[in-house]
Each structure stands twice: as C-alpha cells, then as structure tokens.
Amino acid sequence: VITFEEIQTLDAEDPLRAKRAEFCLPANTIYLDGNSLGPLPIKAKERISTVIDEQWGKDLIQSWNKNHWIDLPIITGDKIAPLIGAATGQVICCDSISINLFKLLASALTLNRERKVILSPADNFPTDLYMVQGLAKLVGNDRCHLKSAAPHQLLDMLDETVAGERYDIEKITQLAHTKGVLVIWDLAHSAGAFPLELDNHKVDFAVGCGYKYLNGGPGAPAFLYVAERHHSRIHQPLSGWMGHKSPFGFNPEYAAAPGIRKFLSGTPNILSLTALDAALDVFDGVDMRQVEAKSHALSSLFLELISQSKYLTPLECISPATCEARGSQLAFSHEDAYAISQALIDRQVVVDFRAPNIIRFGFTPLYLRYEDIWSAVNIFEKIIRQKLYQEPQYQIRNKVT
Amino acid sequence: VITFEEIQTLDAEDPLRAKRAEFCLPANTIYLDGNSLGPLPIKAKERISTVIDEQWGKDLIQSWNKNHWIDLPIITGDKIAPLIGAATGQVICCDSISINLFKLLASALTLNRERKVILSPADNFPTDLYMVQGLAKLVGNDRCHLKSAAPHQLLDMLDETVAGERYDIEKITQLAHTKGVLVIWDLAHSAGAFPLELDNHKVDFAVGCGYKYLNGGPGAPAFLYVAERHHSRIHQPLSGWMGHKSPFGFNPEYAAAPGIRKFLSGTPNILSLTALDAALDVFDGVDMRQVEAKSHALSSLFLELISQSKYLTPLECISPATCEARGSQLAFSHEDAYAISQALIDRQVVVDFRAPNIIRFGFTPLYLRYEDIWSAVNIFEKIIRQKLYQEPQYQIRNKVT
C-alpha cells in the first residue's frame, strides 16, 4: 500500500518540480485535462500584455519589423523543432491542424503523382479523415481517395497505391518508405508529451497542436513539419501572399518562398502566435525524456491507487496496460461516464468526457504533482463510493462536452 | 485659405468625435495607417485581459461552453453582419482572407460546375490571385483557371465561361448574374470603412479583413459571407471538424453543419477572435454613412491643404479625384517615396510605403481628428520644403516595409 509520505518523497525528488511555478493554475484545482487545453504559462500572460500594450498599442504597424512579427511563424517553429527532434528551418507555426494537414496531403499527392490512396487508421481523430474527404471531393476520387482500416491492419495495407499514411513512428515510416509511401504524422497528442525524433526517423511530414501539451492557449496556431529533403519539390495549394518569396513585391504571379516559409498562407495571427511563442519558453532546460518518465510515473501511480480501492477496482480502464503504449492519458469506460465526469469537475478535478461513455484523465508532467494524483483518486473514490454522480444535477448534458 | 479655427470648428461639430476616446493611441502620433492595422480599442485590451486571466487562466477547458468560445466565430460574424448590410447567420469569423477565399472559390466551382474561369482585376491584391493559382494547380487548368484583365475591361469579359469574379458592387453583381456568373467580393478595404449592402445587392460571397478598419489586432481572423440562398447547395473543401454538424460526435464521415458554420475548419483561435469581437463594439451606435462622410471630408481637407502649399502642389496624387471613387486613402507617387515616408514616420506621422514609389495616407474616421490632418500636412510640407528626406538615415531600406 502506497502512503502519502511516499507520495511526498516522489514530489520532493521530482526533477521537474520547479516547472509548476511557471504556470498560473486555478486555486484548489487538479487539472487533468492538459491534453485538451494546456494551462496559462506566466510568460504567455506577460508577453500578451507586451504585445497588446507596447507592440499593437504603441508601435502599431512598425511592429512587423521592429518587433519581428513578420518572422514569428518561423521563430516559433524553430522553438518547437528541438521538442520533436527536428533541425531548424523545417517547422512553421500557422493556421490550424486541419488547414495544415490539407497543405501536406495535397503536397504528398504532388510528390507521388501516380499514387492516389491516402491510408489512415479508422479511429484517427476525425478532422484528419474529414480533410482527406474534402480534398478527395475537390480533386476527384480518381486522383485521391481515403482508405481507412483498423490500426492493426494498416501495416498490411501499405502497398504501391498508397500516397500518404499516418500512425506509429520509426517502424511505420521505415516500412512505408520501402513501399514508396510518404507518411504524415499527426503529433497533436505527442509533441510536448514525450521525445520525438522526426529527423532521425526520416519522417516526411507532420502536423501538431499548439494548445495541448505546448500550452499555447485556446485555439493556438498549429505547426507543420516538412523534411528539408522535400522542400524544393513541393507545391502547396493554399498559396497565400505570406508564402510568396517576396510578399511585399506585389507580383501578380505566385512564386513560392524557399524553404518552410512557403507553407504560410495569409497574415499570421500575431496575438495567438505570441502566446504560443512565450509558452514554449516553459520547455527551456527540460529534457523530454524526463517529461515522458514522469508522465509514465503519474499514470502508473494513478492505476496503482485505483487498484488499492475496492470501489474503483471494478472500473474498466480501456487504455493500454503498458506505459509505453498509452501515451499521456488513461481512459475509463462507464455507463455513467458523463455524470461521473461532472461530479469530478464540480469537486475541482478537471477531466475530459468523451461521448458516449468515456472519462479521460490526462497526466501532464510540467505542472502536476504526485500529490495531485493522490487527491484526485481520493475524490474519485468518494464519488463512486457515495454514488454522488447519481445526484440529479449530473444527469443533464450540456450541448458541448 | 483654410484657417486652424475652421479646423477646430469641424472637430467640435463632428458627430463621431467621442469615438476617439475608445482607442488607446500612442502619444503625439498621427496615425494614417489604419488601413493596414487598426489601433487598439480599449475594449479589446480589457477583453483580452479577461480571456487570459479568467477564461484561460481559471475556467480553462470549461470555457468552451461557459464562456461561449464554441460559438464565437458565429457571434463575431453576426456583429460584422450589420456593418456590411447582411442579415445574421451569413457571416462567420475564422482563418485568414487567403484561406477563406480558397473555400469560396472552390464553393463557386461546385455551384457552377460547367464554368471554369475565375475572372479578376489584374491589379487585385496579390493573395487573391495566388489563391486562384493554387486552386487551379491543384484541380487542374481544365477545371479552373484564372483570367485577369485591367479593371475597365472586366465588364466586357463577363461571359458564360466565367464561374466567379471580383470588383465594384451593385452594378457588377447584377451584370454578372445576367450571365450566370457568381461574384466574390474582397471587402478588405471597405468593411468598416463605408456602408455596404450585400443582401440588397444580391451578393453571392464575400471575404473581409479583421485587422484593418475593424481594428481587431495584428493578423486578426478574417470573415466570410455566404448568401443564405447558397448555403444548402455548397460544399467547401477545407472541411475540418469544427464545420461538422456534430463536432463532438467523432463520426468518421464528414457531414456539414447547416448554415454558415460549415465554413469553419479547425479549432477557432480564441485569443484573436476575442480581440476582434471586443473591437467591434466600437461600432455601437455608429452610422456607417457618417463614417463615409467623415472619411471623404478628411481626405478632401488633406488635398485642399496640399493645394495651399507651393511645396506640396507639385506632388502627384495617383488616387481618383472624386471621394466616391477613392475609398478611404490617398496615394502619392514620388521617386523618394521611401525616404519621405521614413521622414514622416520619424516625426510621428505614420504612413504606409508601397514599393517602388508610393506613399499612402489612410483616413480612418473613428479616431482621426481634422486637426490631425492639419498637423500632418504641416509636417509633410516641412519635410519637402527643407528636403529633410534627403538625410542619409532615410536612404537605407528595411527588409519589409
């Protein structure tokens, strides 16, 4: 049986313990939803004040040069690069994952002109599937179509008709390349959560999220990665003026900027990009292997504490049993998942409900303590033991959850 | 000859004079570049504090419901609607002009399947041309291609091969419709600058800018308008999860939301959208006809004061001579335009330089006074009269201007 003293020792010995102080966290709240929206870093709050009061408020239009707004998509991209194992000049921050994925899907089609199939795991995050469907509808099914399959079947389906694909990393990228298949990785739930080695694993393309593990704020700009070896041969169709080699030349013909900048479209969103750029400073001095190790330790502790409670043991954990396979989250299915998640949130344990019957607990090592896991399990147990989730106020669903 | 006393009377009698106090303006600066980046509204500054400290900082993920983040693209769109003469439910705020234009160009092609030509004025803002070029390259020239022509030739070129087109408003839309042509208007330099009547003029589609006359902050989200009669028949290809009819149903098949919401792609950018939403409150109680009238009065005064100076009279104004034709700006060409614009900016008259030889003065009525025009012309005259722009520090060009 684990004691609270042991928990305190874990916190005292945690090499990441000082990072928590770099965030504004709501009082008396255990935030287990950093995988949906990372909390506010103090540096982001400070930089937003500066960009509003000094840059927009006083320097105004001159900030594009004076305060480097024009280069911010590249500057922020280069800050993300080391977190995903990429050399500089291959990552740019702009738009949303959906839009960036469209750029990369279309790019992959132009690189592999004889290939028409986009292969995806059937349980991929839906926007990834939708963007392929939108592209296929636009260019015609004879030029692009989506095949999806259960994750375990994907490897068997990689063949010479497939243009692009998404799932696992080193192994799949390598296998895909042996069949001439290009791979696009969606890193929404991995960038900032554990170490990645895109360059070493010869990844072709990737997209990722600014507002989850990178803590860039609600709807923060996304990022995209394109391996340097593909830069010169690629055309992306959302070819706006900021991706032009001379945006202020006002030439009527599009001519792509060299390098990763050609993946820009419209004017970069400076307020949101500034928040993300500042948020990334939290990773200064952080070894991603420590983040991964603590994430595993937090979720393992959660499972161990659950197993010590006769009330919680019957709950069905649907995440993989090994740390390595499950990333930074644990999901439990329960017919009253919605009511339980509301009862947890009411007691300031913020979790994520996913329809129809899943409660998701996220373990984000930069600001969570081992004692938070201890407290969260205690509250969880009380809700189940006393059947608090059966109170009537938890039976009504909100429109969006 | 106009006297300073007359100028003061104009300010005292200005029905919009109280609006200036709703902006944070840098001290001792005459800002004639609101057509590039609108200044900071006090309400935007306040709302950004709230969204950072209270919504992101404390309510965190619950803000999507509690603080209406999920509906912000629609809420903000409906605030823009009356400024452009649109009933609610037809305007949505998201992404950039470039991205939104791509959605509309592709939509126009699906509505007019036998039409392949996108007609545009050759001097259109380049990103509009680039997005057509990108779309054409993606779907093939046999399905979409760009024709451009001098503005005065456009009307003659409207024929049965043309799918979409952009320029003037009531007359061109009407003429286009007689040939079965759909029209997309780029309102970047008109929304918030003068009255528009999109519904009355039976406009099909429009895009517009959040960071110019709407003062939404650097790189603010853009907006798009789709006439209600087209909603049900349109498919837009950037079909991300936020445009799905049930974004949190996680269905693997895309099914568009009804109405304007289907034009959303990825997660909306809440910080930037909040700034724009708050900035729009400046238009409360403003009659757009007053804005237009004052804009004309400001630019006419500028020209009249120029004509009173023997040093400034030789300058070549390349904007149309009548107020009605020129919108909210005056452009002057001069071989030393870059140096003159830098000399003006150094003396806190903020103007816009456009390569190779144009100085652009913008007249934005919500925060400019007639006395600002008086002072700007005095400083302009001094720079020309004393040839201050020939000083060496103005001869070096910045990378981006």
| Rough outline of chain A | globular
Number of helices of chain A: 13
Oligomer type: homodimer
Structural class of chain A: alpha/beta
Provide an overview of this structure:
Two copies of one chain form a homodimer. With 401 residues, chain A is α/β, with parallel strands linked by helices. Chain A has 13 helices and 15 strands. The first copy, chain A, has helices spanning 4-12, 42-59, 63-66, 72-80, 97-111, 126-139, 151-157, 170-178, 270-279, 288-307, 323-326, 337-346, 370-385, and strands at residues 23-24, 30-31, 40-41, 91-94, 117-121, 145-149, 162-165, 182-186, 205-208, 222-226, 316-317, 329-333, 349-350, 352-354, 358-362. A seven-stranded mixed β-sheet of chain A has the order 4-10-9-8-7-5-6, with helices on both faces. In chain A, strands 11-12-15-14 form a four-stranded antiparallel β-sheet, with helices on one face. In chain A, strands 1-3 form a two-stranded antiparallel ribbon. The two termini of chain A are 35 Å apart. At the A-B interface, helix 2, helix 3, helix 5, helix 6 and helix 9 of A face helix 2, helix 3, helix 5, helix 6 and helix 9 of B.
Summarize the structure.
With 401 residues, chain A is α/β, with parallel strands linked by helices. Chain A contains 13 helices and 15 strands.
Helix/strand layout:
2 copies of one chain form a homodimer.
Chain A: H1 4-12, E1 23-24, E2 30-31, E3 40-41, H2 42-59, H3 63-66, H4 72-80, E4 91-94, H5 97-111, E5 117-121, H6 126-139, E6 145-149, H7 151-157, E7 162-165, H8 170-178, E8 182-186, E9 205-208, E10 222-226, H9 270-279, H10 288-307, E11 316-317, H11 323-326, E12 329-333, H12 337-346, E13 349-350, E14 352-354, E15 358-362, H13 370-385
Parallel strand pairs in A: 2-13, 5-6, 5-7, 7-8, 8-9
Antiparallel strand pairs in A: 1-3, 4-10, 9-10, 11-12, 12-15, 14-15
Helix pairs in contact in A: 2-9, 4-9, 5-6, 10-13
